[in-house]
Predict the structure.
Amino acid sequence: MSERSTTANASAIAAKKKLSSQFFRKGIAIALFSAVMYGFYSAFLTLGMTKGVWADWYGENTVGLSPFVITFVLGAVGSAVNDTCSAIWAMLYAGVKGKFGDFIRCLNTTPGRVMILAALIGGPISSTAYVIGLQMAGSIVIPITALCPAIGAILGRVLFKQELNKRMMLGIAICVIASFMIGSTSISTNAQEGAFLGVCIAFIAALGWGFEGCVAGYGTSMIDSEIGITIRQATSGLSNLIILLPIFGMIAGNVGLSTNLAFKAFTSGPAMIWFAASGLCAFVSYMFWYRGNSMCGAALGMACNGTYSFWGPFCCWLVLGVFCGISGWSIPIIAWIAAVLMVFGILVIAMNPLELLIKKEDK
């Protein structure tokens, strides 16, 4: 009887290890897919900002818009349209899953308010800076924004006294070196006009997303990640529309200008097709990122998602350069090398890469 029991226990343990291994690998695949979807979100967003009324705004005939409006206000409009589309997709998904009521109830809870705070940081500030950087410098800004895990690690140490060991500091140093390599491409003789400023603005996005990650980690530890994402996207879309755009309008000297531009953007059919696609990709990217983190661990999930520093430029080159034939989306070889280096740096920050080999041997 004892021998049978021992054999049964051994079989149960082996089955459990096999299930855990499959669950772990599935989590890695989901987290990696979130990075791919982030790349397509960046590509479709940029494509949308070349269609319909956007073609007039960014074309040779700028319809009397000032440089400030073209650079900053239109970037905020693009971010607002994308995040609003993403919020609609998120709320539709919550409704289909029967979680829309939970979404409403969570808004007035402590974790819900934490997610709202995170969205206010990552939405109006970082998302807009990201869109502006994309328009000014192209896809080379994407690896720069991937500095957010490194910035998040530093801020976590400063704000929450989280661990920042030698391995993590090495990873941060690797990311910084990679960002300088990418930044060097923006000041070369064949770089597009305004590329250096675009790269600098991308650092603002990285800083905001790094801070958002610190804050959102607290919120998502206490509520359903799908509800947290819905809160995040809805807050980001609304705050862009009712806070950031009016502020930019006042700076431009015409509060009604931003409202008028937003209305024209939302009613531009040729562009909205691609904004709907970018909003869907953004929502799926965030959703799969959180889901992957819960399956393979936040550290490894963050590293897998950080591969968007490669997938972002690749998807932009594929969609905009290859399929749409838009010039200016080829990536210098040094930027590709730096993007891969950035991925490795993020992995070093998140975990000891040797642990992957150890786990593989154990399985």
